[in-house]
Amino acid sequence: LRRGRDPLRVADRYFSPAEVEAVRAVPAADRPRAFLRYWTAKEALAKGLGLGLQAPSGELELAQQPGGMMAPVRSARDWRIVELTDLPYGYCGALAVDDNGARIVIRDWHSSP
Length: 113
Fold this sequence. Notes:
Blueprint (H helix, E strand, L loop, with lengths): L6 H8 L2 H8 L6 H18 L13 E3 L5 E3 L7 E5 L8 E5 L16
Antiparallel strand pairs: 1-2, 3-4
């Protein structure tokens, strides 16, 4: 998260109208985090599909499901988005997986000095 940036300005450019409205619907103080959740989930899905950052983000529309989970709306509906929640404050992360049965294991690796 970075202070001083207008998440709606960026969302208007790269998100679908429904995603922009979802970010706009949260209180102003929470918009940067809401924007970053969508951004990281869309980026993970685009990369998972092999589209990289060249994918038109508006075409990879996501919606927040009951319980808060992100899910693709039209394309790649068989994919699931796993948000990485145990990150330091100010960071968001997501993983896109095309196998609902996949077991996701997250480990914290400490490097030696």
